[in-house]
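User: Teach me something about this protein's shape.
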Amino acid sequence: MKKPKLVISTGAGMSAESGISTFRDSGGLWDKYPVMDVASADGFARNPELVHSFYNTRRHELVKAQPNAGHRGLVELEQWYDTYVITQNVDNLHERAGSEHVLHLHGELMKVRSMKHPERVYELSEGNLDTTVDTRDEYGDAVRPHIVFFQEAVPNIEPAIELASEADVFVVIGTSLAVYPAASLLHYVRRGVPVYYIDPNPAPVPDYVTVLRMPATKGVEELVRLLRP
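Assistant: First, the predicted structure itself:
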């Protein structure tokens, strides 16, 4: 019997309980670093050394972090649903928890890519986390973080929209619904499809959305209870 398609859109709140610094919360990364200096195309062009250093630090934080109960709970749902995760997060905690299908909208922290040939993408290892302006790939090309900077297009938004439009159940976890185009995915869900929104401080949403006002770990526990056949 074919499993119903469960599509889950996750944001920074998904990984916050794993100790991953969020950008927008008080005391978050944006309070410490001007966003356009470390996460924009202009910032990278202006000071690539700073941007490399910023993402090196993020990688060292990531390898110390572990998937939380929320990440693991989404994997549990794969027993009953054909489950796809669309994430704004650049960490790899969904994959490390065991999620089979993960689509990254904003890039992947543990990868770099050639600046001359963007299709050449390389995975970094825990023993090789740091890059600089002098780092070269096997072809002698400079590399950059495999991150979608502000001012750049989001290459995976079209596949994400397609997934949202095919969902039999749609879930949003840990996002302010303020970052576009990711926030627009809700608009592509078919009329009548159940929608759940997990966040301790949820943004205003339409009446048809079931809001679970709680952090990701507790919210996913409740979601599993609601969606288990």
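Now, about its shape. The first strand starts at residue 5 and ends at 10. The beta strands are 5-10, 82-87, 102-104, 107-114, 121-123, 143-147, 169-173, 195-198, 209-212. If you'd like, I can walk through any region in more detail.
User: That's plenty for now, thanks!
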